[in-house]
Amino acid sequence: VQLQASGGGLVQPGGSLRLSCAASGSIFSIGYVGWFRQAPGKQRELVALITSGGSTVYADSVKGRFTISRENVRNTVFLQMNSLKPEDTAVYYCRYQGGVNRDYWGQGTQSPSSA
């Protein structure tokens, strides 16, 4: 499975941005798909994930501002980011964890950058 992340860019604090993660194969039958981020000098952290059953988990820092969703037909996961803060600036990665030996990461997308 290959994951292609997109949607990063410049945005004003308080603005919105949507990231997309498109997979080359089925990623919703088992496991989860998540968004992680890594800011300079910090460890990579979970932002949000959605399980095969549709359950979602969010980091406390983004609850109420970010929403993860998926489009099964297109094998795509989205991260809608609202009320963006400067501390949200990081490289964002999508990840598909589908069990043993099924752990895939997409390339990072820089998002968001304060305008």
Write up what this structure looks like.
- The chain is an all-beta fold and 115 residues long.
- The protein has no helices and twelve strands.
- The strands form three sheets. Strands 4, 5, 6, 9, 10 and 11 form a six-stranded antiparallel beta sheet that branches.
Secondary-structure map with pairings?
Elements: E1 3-6, E2 10-11, E3 17-23, E4 32-38, E5 45-51, E6 56-58, E7 66-71, E8 76-81, E9 90-97, E10 103-105, E11 109-111, E12 113-114
Parallel strand pairs: 2-12
Antiparallel strand pairs: 1-3, 3-8, 4-5, 4-9, 5-6, 7-8, 9-10, 9-11
Strand percentage lies at over 45%
Averaging pLDDT over every residue, what do you get?
91
Count the beta strands: 12
- For the record, give the distance between the C-alpha atoms at the N and C termini, rounded to a whole number: 34 Å
Taking the sheet with the most strands, its summary is: 6 strands, antiparallel
Spatial shape: globular
Low-confidence stretches: none
Number of helix segments? Answer: 0
Helix-strand string: EEEEEEEEEEEE
How large is the radius of gyration? 13 Å
Percent range of helical residues: under 10%
Task: Using brief descriptors, characterize the structure shown.
four-stranded antiparallel β-sheet; globular
Summarize, please:
With 115 residues, the protein is mostly beta strands.
